[in-house]
């Protein structure tokens, strides 16, 4: 071993055996706080907040889609020569049907009696585009209130009634599925009239 290399090794050994260095060697590193490890981590969402991740987008998309169809075309429905469109609802009937169903599920969440025969548009007298749009927006507000009142303690609360869902969470799932189903149908109505749905622009 050369003299230079021996001196280097002796210096390294003496450094590790100094009291201050020994303490540094034996100290366990302090764990970083979870905040420091995950600076972008957000607090856990509430049940209602988690539901609204998709519900709020669907609500906005459905309302903008309904409003995009000119009032003159609210009586439109695809003709049978375009495909399997026998006995389908008109555009306006579709929108009113969704509004009635929203009201029904919102009433179920709130313990109120749902409107009858939403399959035929229900008892609400709305007929014009402006009237049905107002009904639609109000029905979504009713559902928003029902979702906001849903939490970890009552999400599985048993509910009874003629519309789908035997607890709060299931009722909301039905309402979400129903509105998105009709959204998909109405996209076709819009496109057949040369209109691109707002959410797709």
Provide a descriptive summary of the structure in words.
The protein is an all-alpha fold and 201 residues long. It has a single domain, classed as dinb family like domain (Four Helix Bundle (Hemerythrin (Met), subunit A), Up-down Bundle), CATH 1.20.120. The protein has 7 helices and no strands. The longest helix has 25 residues.
Descriptors:
mainly alpha; globular; disordered N terminus; 201 residues; single chain; Four Helix Bundle (Hemerythrin (Met), subunit A)
H/E topology pattern: HHHHHHH
Total individual domains: 1
What is the CATH top level name? Mainly Alpha
Helix content: 55-70%
Main beta sheet: none
Q: What is the correct CATH architecture?
A: Up-down Bundle
Strand coverage percent: under 5%
What's the number of extended β-strand segments? 0
Number of helices: 7
Shape summary: globular
Distance between the termini: 76 Å
Predict the CATH topology.
Four Helix Bundle (Hemerythrin (Met), subunit A)
| Fourth-level CATH superfamily | dinb family like domain
Rounded to an integer in angstroms, the radius of gyration calculated over CA atoms is: 31 Å
- In the predicted model, the low-confidence regions spanning at least 5 consecutive residues are 1-29, 31-36
Secondary-structure-derived class: mainly alpha
């Amino acid at each position: 071993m050369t003299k230079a290399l021996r001196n280097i090794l002796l210096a390294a050994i003496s450094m590790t055996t100094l009291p201050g260095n020994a303490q540094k060697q034996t100290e366990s590193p302090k764990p970083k706080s979870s905040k420091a490890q995950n600076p972008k981590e957000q607090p856990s969402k509430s049940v209602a907040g988690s539901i609204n991740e998709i519900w709020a987008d669907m609500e906005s998309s459905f309302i903008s889609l309904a409003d995009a169809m000119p009032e003159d075309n609210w009586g439109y429905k695809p003709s049978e020569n375009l495909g399997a469109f026998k006995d389908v609802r008109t555009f306006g009937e579709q929108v009113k049907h969704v509004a009635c169903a929203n009201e029904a599920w919102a009433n179920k969440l709130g313990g109120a009696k749902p409107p009858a025969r939403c399959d035929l548009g229900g008892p609400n007298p709305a007929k014009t585009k402006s009237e049905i749009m107002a009904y639609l927006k109000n029905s979504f507000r009713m559902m928003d209130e029902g979702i906001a009142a849903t939490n970890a303690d009552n999400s599985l609360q048993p509910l009874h009634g003629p519309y789908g869902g035997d607890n709060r969470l299931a009722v909301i799932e039905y309402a979400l599925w129903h509105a998105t189903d009709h959204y998909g149908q109405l996209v076709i109505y819009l496109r057949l009239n040369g209109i691109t749905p707002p959410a797709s622009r």
